[in-house]
User: What shape does this take?
Amino acid sequence: MSTSRKDIENALMRGADSLRDTIDAANYKDYVLPLMFVKYLSDTYKEKVENLEKEYQGVRLERQKRYLPFTVAEDCSFNSLYEQRYSDNIGQLINMAMRRIENDNNQQLAGVLNTTDYNSENALGTREHKNAILRELLEDLHPLDLRPSQIEVKEGEVSADVIGDAYEYMIGQFASMAGKKAGSFYTPAAVSEIMARIVNVQPGERVYDPTCGSGSLLIKAAKKENSNQVSIFGQEVNGSSVAMAKMNMYIHEISDAKIAWGDTLANPMFKDEDGNLLTFDAIVANMPFSKDKWAAGFNPGGEAVGKGKKEFKMEATLDKYHRFDWGVPPASKGDWAFLLHMIASASINGRIAAVAPHGVLFRGAAEGRIRQRVIEENLLDAIIGLPENLFYGTSIPACILVFKKDRSENNVLFIDASGKDENGNLRYKKNKRQNVLETKNIDDIVNAYFERKDIDKFSHIATIDEIKENGYNLNIPRYVDTFEEEELVDIEEVQNNIDRLKYEIAEAEKQLEEYLRELGL
Assistant: This one.
């Protein structure tokens, strides 16, 4: 019996249910997804070996096995762990198996499976409780058959698409469960789709995400073109998210993606031969909103606030890559720090699509000066206002900022996708838990971006002079008028209705008095 995407999703959700009440929802992904990854590796490797065994034996078979993209020792396989699920030291056995798989495939899987401790009593409770949970997790995933030949695919799909899409869907589900603790490791699929279509990665180009989280946004951008023809780079400060991104890439059969662990601002990992920032043709990012203390990594001498200590203040000269020469963002809001990093990392024809809070559009002081310089350099291409409650972890509305190097236009396109269309319908689907952009909504935004024309209550092309007149304030309502006139109130009709209601109330009171008299009350 074949395995469908729904089967994979259901198994992962059962795994999350097994962890419920024991660990925080924000950490479900750290325990469930690596085990599912081991299941995927084990089943895939087993099938590849079985296929080789049909043609080779003995020494020739062993030689051919060495050419496979990865290896899984029998005593480290998922089935081996499943058979040992009642062992008192099952947590330790899982840790050892994952460490062995990573070591045996160090070139491809370095840093992927060693970030979660399955033997931690601090995280999973006493030995008895921990063992029961891990046994249930193994039992939840065991029925899945993830051999490529057994995956149910649609026309034009391959098994990696099905498994990868299920994996990404569950990352989103786990982000939803985590709520405000989801952070910025996951970008909703609809927003990823918009950004991918806007940057429009071409064969042979380099695509980069400086805050890549689970890697879903990078994959979406790369998959718009054959990912084997695109060079993929991502950096992430959270170790758990780095591992998740690497797993995500591997499941999507993107084996050469370069995912780095570290602080993108203080320690950018991708540099050219001269030690300068490596540049990229397309950059996408869903950066941490208004990150506090973003410059802490630049502190050269450990200065801090306190008696007898000098307070650290970020200065442009502390950054050897000259990203903040146009201005240093405020210490408590790192939005423009990330945006300036992206601009500095864009190639001569580079395109950038970055999610940001609306504050970057209108906050003053240093941010205002940076914004003015970016506009004067003709780098800002478009601003797309998104609906509220679209992102996991925050209900506030966000926007997509689009930057381009070597622009031919000398204007800025504003799109407001947070309101209603010409028929009075919302430009998004309003859900109780999380609002959603549907296919038509996505198409409307992307078409408006590429057509670049004024559309009533939706889009407007603002000249640089218009922006100057607004003091370089980019708040979207200043440019896209979504005001809806209320119907004129007929005062005479309202007064007649009030008089009629008063008469009906008086008549009802008379009738009530009559009933009370008849009852002798």
